[in-house]
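Table S2 (text version). Query chain:
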Amino acid sequence: MPVYRTRPGALAYGFTLGVLALDCEQPFVPGDVGNASTWPWPVLYREIEGCSVQRLIVEGDRTLEPLVVDAARALAGEGVKAILSNCGFLARFQTAVARAVDVPVGLSALLQVPPVLAMTGGGPVAVVTASASALSTELLDAAGVPRGAAVPVYGMEDNPAFAEPFLSDCGWVDTDALAVAADDLGRRMAAAHPDLRAIVLECAVLPPYAHVFEAAAGVPVHDAVTLGHQLVSGVGHTPPSGTY
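Corresponding structure-token output:
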């Protein structure tokens, strides 16, 4: 076996994916980025202390950048192979974090919008977000979404099944009610855009309902979980095996 060396400050070893997490108390169900059972490999979570829903989403607080960068550096220092986040609004700090660490970084499912536009011949590609009013042009720019692209944005903030657990931290989530909301929104998006080609779920608590959106709208759905798999797929390659 090879010689292994101590990684200063590491409490444990062998983590594949690191996840930056907001400073909040929410129920992260199976399929959610924040639920470790969602992933097929070891995952390490790191809270960004002080990075609340209020400061990040509602206020758009840019002064959070050093906190986000420091948390990402801590994850990289623990040996993770890639870094994801549990909130797509961290897209604002994508470039800063990617420059600060030496592993692949994807802080927002919005990063998938440009390649999905390319793969669909220009869309339309609908974005489902925690708050349509807060999803600014600045955030879309940070994710590389071309201005003027066919990217209709739909928010979940007016639906109590979403807003109460994930914007107000009520402490519980009714997954059946949220699935109904996802079905309704998926159908409305498809009706409003008969030529809809795909959906990107910005919010990292929505992947458990990706199958609902897909069935309701009849188009492929991309989210923070698909982004996590993409990040990890680029590292740890092994020689091919088999016979010829």
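Notes on Table S2: The chain has nine helices and eight strands. The domain at 109-223 is CATH 3.40.50.1860 (Rossmann fold).
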